[in-house]
Amino acid sequence: MKLISMAMLILNLFVSTAWGYKAGQFAPKVPDMMGCPGIPCSCSCTDPYDPRVKSIAGSNVGQCLDTCSFRNAILLSSSDEKTLTLANVVLNDEFYVAKIPVNKIKETIFQIEWFGVWPSNHFQIRFVFDEDVVLTPQDTSSDSSVAYERDFVWTVMGMGPVNQIYGLEQALNGDVINSFVFAAMSDYVNHAVIKQGHVVEQYAVKLSKPESSRLLEALLQKGNSDAYQIVYNFGERSCVQEFFKVFDGILSDKNKIKSQKILSQPQNIITRTVPSEVIHYSKALGIFLYQKPDVHKEFQIKI
Questions:
Q1: Which of 33, 178, 236, 292 is most buried by its number of CB atoms within 10 A?
Q2: Does residue 125 contact residue 112 with C-beta atoms inside 8 Å?
C-alpha cells in the first residue's frame, strides 16, 4: 500500500506541473512592467494596490513578477465583524476592491480542476454568498463601474516573470512564487473552462457558517502574511498543502482530533499532496455533502 501511494505521489508531482502554476490561468498579458517612470515592475501607474514586486528565489531572483493578469489578494481591513475589505480581487480581467460579507456564505464548495491526464489536477475553493459582494475598480484610471457579484473562488496560483515558461524544471529550480488569488467565478469559468476546456469537479462540503467564515478569513489572512514570500514546492507548498495549513486551524476540537487520526494513517500518506485526495479526506472527516455537477455542465458550456 505504501509503495502504491508513493508511486501515485511521484506521478502526481510530475504531471501536476501542468497546473502547479497555471490552473485556470487568467487572461495572459505581456506588459513591459517598466511603463511608470521611476517605478519598476508596474502594471499600472494609477493602481494603488499594484504590488510591484520581484522574485525572491530561483534563477529569476530579482526579476519583476508578472502581477498584471492575477496577483495576491490583499486583506486591507475588517470594516467590522461582518465585512472584510479586500483589494486585488479579479473581475472581468481587472482588479477591484471588494466588501466581503464574511458571515453570509451560502455554500462552500471544494473544486478539483483536471488537465486531461490522471492524476494531474488542482484544488481550490468556491464560496457562494447570500448577499452581493460590492466591487469598486481600484485603478483610478479605470472607466469600469461598481459591480456586484456573489460567486468567487480562492486559489493558489504560481507566478514568475513575464513570459515565464512553466514546467517541471522551473518547479524543481524554485523559480515559481505562490500567489493567493481571489477571483469572480465568472472569470475562472471563462479562462479555465471556456478557453482551456478543463473539467472542474465540484463537491459541496458541510461547514457551519462560523466555520466557513473562519476558513475564508484565514485563507485571506494567509495571503497577507505569505504574499510573494512562498516558493512553490511539490512536497510542502502545493495548492492542497497551502489549504491544509489553514484548514487544520479552523476545525472544531473534535474534528481536529479526527483529522489528525485520518492523516496519520499510512494509506493517507498522499492526502496532503494529491489535490483529488482532499475529497476522500472530506468524506472520512464527515464534512462531505454531495457532488455537484461539473462546472461546464452547471454553466452549460460545451467542452
A1: 178
A2: no
Domain contains 53: no
Q: Is residue 237 a contact partner of residue 178, using CB atoms and an 8 Å limit?
A: yes
Residue that wins the pLDDT comparison between 146 and 58: 146
**Distance (Å, whole) CA 278 – CA 33:** 38
Q: Please give the Cα distance from 103 to 131 (Å, whole number).
A: 10
How much is the pTM? Answer: 0.90
Would you give the end-to-end CA distance of the chain in angstroms?
36
Alpha carbons 45 and 39: distance in angstroms, whole number = 8
**282 lies in some domain:** yes
The yes-or-no verdict on residue 18 having pLDDT over 50 is no
What is the distance between the alpha carbons of residues 265 and 262, in angstroms, rounded to a whole number? 6
**Distance from the Cα of residue 102 to its chain's centroid:** 17
Q: Tally the domains of the chain.
A: 1
The answer to whether position 171 is within a domain reads: yes
Highest mean pLDDT pick, 11-25, 142-156, 241-255? 142-156
Q: Which of 183, 187, 188 is nearest to 87 (CA)?
A: 183
d(CA 184, CA 88): 11
Domain housing 143: 2-30+68-298
In a domain, 61, yes or no: no
